[in-house]
Amino acid sequence: MKIVRIDTQIVEIPFHDGGKGQGITPTTWNTLENVLVRIEDEQGNVGWGEAFGYFVANATKALIDRLITPLLLNREITDIAAFNQELQLRLHLFGRYGVTLFAISGIDIALWDLAARRRNLPLHRLLGEAVRESVPAYASLVRYSDDEVAPAICEKALEMGFSDIKLHEVTVDEIAACRRAIGDDVPLATDVNCGWKVKDTRDWLPALRDLKLAWLEEPIFPPEDFATLASLRGQGVPLSAGENWCTAVQFEQALGTGAVDSIQPSVTKVGGISECLRIGELARQREAVVLPHCPYFGPGLIATLHLAAVQSWVPQVEYLFVEPAGWLYPVESLRSGNQLQIPQGAGLGLDIDQQVIERFRRN
């Protein structure tokens, strides 16, 4: 069945996080920019995907509209993984990372959703043999840069049933304040978004070890400096990274050099479901832990759940701990404490909320 229509749209949903919305991003961050991809075949079957946006939504959308749509329209795609590789080859002139791979990711997720819906099967049935019906999630907090607000939000997450917490705080004092608030038994990680110098990281590792940090995420820049990351391991603080790596090639290099203790592919950034399957196979072969990066609450998060259904080496997934003004999917209805149910309906298993799309569509 041929692809007869491809639509991309940006849906920008405000959220509340209890903080100032400042600290990580170039400007205030208080909305979720979803680049949604809708693909329809000649029999009216529809698949939905999500390409990473996050301040570059317009660029990601433009790349899909200008460069990918002409390559897909009126095509019959029988091998999604092969088409994914074709796109990577055809578009490599425009970069192997960043918005090029974000765009490919959105298309790939939509094609997998479409394929599963055509067969009236949940997506995970196409990806492998399911090993579970739910997956644990940890609460991923935004950066507060406030040693009173951050601990209070940690306590709120625990009250809502989460048992593991990840911060985005960048000072040892702020991390320590959160540890004091929740006690020593709650797993606590932090993501510093490549913000530390190598020397500072080495100097701070003993204190982080004493704080029983579950993992330190992306401590240094550039994130693909695998040799330096490897030199920071083995000091009592597990390292994790991968949100800003793209394609299985970089993950294979990272695993080969022993750069980290766990890897964090993002299905909306890395190249989609097809690329996550390649990365997952690398992880299986090397007995590596996968902690998926899965921002927002759109098709990317739901696709991550289906991948986790068939990958036993994924101990938990990320759950952005904010309150959006609208939900593209009824995500909270999937959650019981820290467990997220894996949808069992056809395709992604949930119907996207068209009213939310209309309400928050950005022109």
In short:
With about 375 residues, the protein is an alpha/beta fold. It has helices spanning about 55-70, 80-90, 100-120, 125, 150-160, 170-180, 200-210, 225-230, 245-255, 270-285, 300-310, 330-335, 355-360, and strands at about 5-15, 30-40, 45-50, 135-140, 165, 190, 215, 240, 260-265, 290, 315-320, 325, 335, 340, 360.
Provide an overview of this structure:
Helices cover 39% and strands 19% of the residues. It is of the alpha/beta class and 363 residues long. Helix 2 runs antiparallel to helix 3 (99-118) and helix 9 (247-256) packs parallel to helix 10 (272-286). The chain has helices spanning 57-72, 80-90, 99-118, 123-127, 149-159, 172-182, 198-210, 226-232, 247-256, 272-286, 299-310, 331-334, 354-360, and strands at residues 3-16, 31-41, 46-51, 134-140, 165-167, 188-191, 213-217, 239-241, 262-263, 289-290, 317-320, 323-324, 335-336, 339-341, 361-362. It starts with a strand and ends with a strand. The protein is globular and about 60 Å long. Helix 10 links the parallel strand 9 (262-263) and strand 10 (289-290).
